[in-house]
Amino acid sequence: MGLSTHVLDTMHGTPAAGMGVRLYTTQGDSATLVKGFTLNADGRNPDGLLYDSATLKAGTYRLVFDVAGYFALRGVVLPEPNFLSVVSLDFGVADPTQHYHVPLLVSPWSYSTYRGS
Which residues pair with 58 in a beta bridge? Predict the structure, then answer.
């Protein structure tokens, strides 16, 4: 199964194409960058899964989404400082044989997430 993410821009009602994302593994206060990528036209990692079922391990992870950069790229004029600059989601993988999908629904003023399928 593996680990995946998907971002929807709720201000425009579209996938968040062009948003920068970074994936980290975490242990306590320490974070190690695994990869950075830019979301494709569907708001997903252009390379597919972030981890496949063979490489996903039990543990803790962090996804960091460049919200301010994305909305600036879209030409949205926002006050400085932006209400949301980055959204950082820390989550755990207890059973790496299951699929972990971490979607983000985001606007310049709010976000929500959940464990998807």
Answer: none
Cα-based angle 42, 83, 66 (whole degrees, multiple of 5): 35
Asked whether the bond before 103 is cis by omega within 30 degrees of 0, the reply is no
What pLDDT was estimated at residue 4? 98
Is the pTM higher than 0.85? The answer reads yes
Which of 64, 60, 63 lies closest to 28, judged by CA?
Answer: 60
Q: Are 23 and 60 in contact (CB under 8 A)?
A: no
Residue 7 maps to which CATH number?
2.60.40.180
Give residue 84's domain range: 2-113
Which residue in 81, 116, 33 sits closest to 108, CA to CA? 81
pLDDT value at 113 more than 90: yes
Sign of CA pseudo-dihedral 57, 65, 115, 1: negative
Q: Work out how many domains the chain is built from and give that number.
A: 1
Q: Please enumerate in sequence order all residues whose Cβ is within 8 A of that of 13, keeping only pairs 6 or more positions apart, or say none.
A: none
pLDDT digit string, tens, across residues 94-105: 999 999 999 999
